[in-house]
Amino acid sequence: MKNLFFLPIFLLTTLFFACTPDKTPDAGSGITLKSYFAPSADAIQTGGVKVIPIKSAGRDFNIWTKRFGNNPKVKLLLLQGGPGCPHDYWECMESFLPAEGIEFIYYDQLGTGYSDNPNDTAFWDLPRYVEEVEQVRQALGLNKDNFFLLGHSWGGILAMQYALKYQDNLKGLIISNMMASCPEYGKYANEVLAKQFDTKVLDTIRMIEAKGDFSNPKYMELLTPHFYNKHICRIPLNEWPPAVARSLNNINQSLYVTMQGPSEFGIAGRLAKWDIKAQLPSIKIPTLTIGATHDTMDPEHMKWISTAVQKGRFLLCPNGSHMCMWDDQKTYMEGLIAFLKEIG
Question: Which domain holds residue 303?
Answer without folding.
Answer: 49-183+270-343
